[in-house]
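Title: Comparing notes on inverse folding

I've been comparing how different people in this forum approach sequence design from structure. To keep things fair, I'm posting one structure and asking everyone to reply with a full sequence. Here's the target:
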């Protein structure tokens, strides 16, 4: 099983990748198809990780 700490670190990494993508978009002045796909991917992974943490807290809270 993955630890909450590992999930939090993964969340931080995905957030950094999202910021990097937006920085690249700002630098280039446009968003390529590949950059858009990368942004969508990182947003999706971050949402999944956050949902996992929320469920863990709900389970812990009710036990």
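Reply #1:
Here's my take.
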């Amino acid at each position: 099983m993955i630890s909450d700490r590992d999930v939090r670190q993964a969340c931080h990494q995905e957030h950094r990748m999202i910021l990097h993508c937006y920085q690249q978009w700002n630098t280039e002045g446009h968003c390529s198809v590949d950059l858009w796909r990368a942004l969508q991917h990182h947003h999706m992974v971050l949402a999944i990780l956050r949902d996992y943490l929320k469920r863990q807290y709900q389970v812990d809270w009710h036990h």
